[in-house]
Amino acid sequence: QKEVEQNSGPLSVPEGAIASLNCTYSDRGSQSFFWYRQYSGKSPELIMSIYSNGDKEDGRFTAQLNKASQYVSLLIRDSQPSDSATYLCAVNMRGESGGSNYKLTFGKGTLLTVNP
Amino acid sequence: GAVVSQHPSRVICKSGTSVKIECRSLDFQATTMFWYRQFPKQSLMLMATSNEGSKATYEQGVEKDKFLINHASLTLSTLTVTSAHPEDSSFYICSARGDNINNEQFFGPGTRLTVL
Questions:
Q1: Chain B contact for A7, CB < 8 A?
Q2: Which of A62, A60, A81 is nearest to A73 (CA)?
Q3: What pLDDT does B42 receive?
Q4: If you average pLDDT over residues A105-112, what whole number do you get?
Q5: In angstroms, how far is CA B107 from the centroid of its own chain?
Q6: What is the residue-averaged pLDDT of chain B?
Q7: Which of A2, A55, B16, B53 is a good FRET partner for A62, with 20 to 30 A between their CA atoms?
């Protein structure tokens, strides 16, 4: 069973702090990794993608990937109350039938609350 | 990012009726579209994957005769929930992926289905 694991939270941080969200995945052959943000009652919104080991920064967001450890994380600097949402880690994995059939496998999401 | 629309955003219907949901990629050609279902406080569950011009691939446990998927063009996919029952009430979300090496998927805003 190919899986993506996340702590469900809730993760609570004060406004202005750094929020750290973590994710591990089971398929060592995965090459594409994504973080989605989902507000309550809304659909997921892509906020970061990362494909190679190391850090990738975009504004207040930094994604970190370590393929050897099968670990991907998302850091949110200067957290704002508007960042309060569920963050979904998604990994592009080869389907059970193999071949070129790739599909996103999602973690259950981490609920982040940023307190004013 | 790329834009995906869904229609309708909300539908309420009587048990036994069929409901059609449309998913459109507005500014790119979607070679692959995905249909997800999300129950309250649960993660996204992939129902099926569809490629333009071919039959959809359904995930295990998803009834293909109940959830009819058509991907007739590179910008439109439809999901028809046939003979809907209250247990089909859920948040249905489509996503689309273009012909890009990054495998990014973009989600539509979702359709909230309530079956009375």
A1: no
A2: A62
A3: 86
A4: 93
A5: 10
A6: 92
A7: A2
Q: Which of A23, A34, A43, A102 to mutate to test the interface with B (most CBs of B within 10 A)?
A: A43
In this predicted structure, the answer to whether residue B58 has a pLDDT above a threshold of 80 is yes
C-alpha count within 13 angstroms, C-beta hemisphere, residue A116: 2
Who among B42, B57, B106 is closest to A46 (CB)?
Answer: B106
Question: Which pair of structure tokens corresponds to residue A88?
Answer: 């979904």
SS3 labels along chain A: CCCEEECCCCEEEECCCCEEEEEEECCCCCCEEEEEEECCCCCCEEEEEECCCEEEEECCEEEEEECCCCEEEEEECCCCHHHCEEEEEEEEEECCCCCCCEEEEECCCEEEEEEC
AA letter at B101: I
d(CA B35, CA A103): 11
Question: Are A46 and B103 in contact (CB < 8 Å)?
Answer: no
Based on its alpha-carbon atoms, the radius of gyration of chain A, rounded to whole angstroms, reads 14
Amino acid code (one letter) for B74:
L
Question: In this structure, what token pair is assigned to residue B8?
Answer: 């309708």
- Least CB-CB distance to A32: which of B42, B93, B103? B103
Asked if A103 and B34 come within 8 Å (Cβ–Cβ), the reply is yes
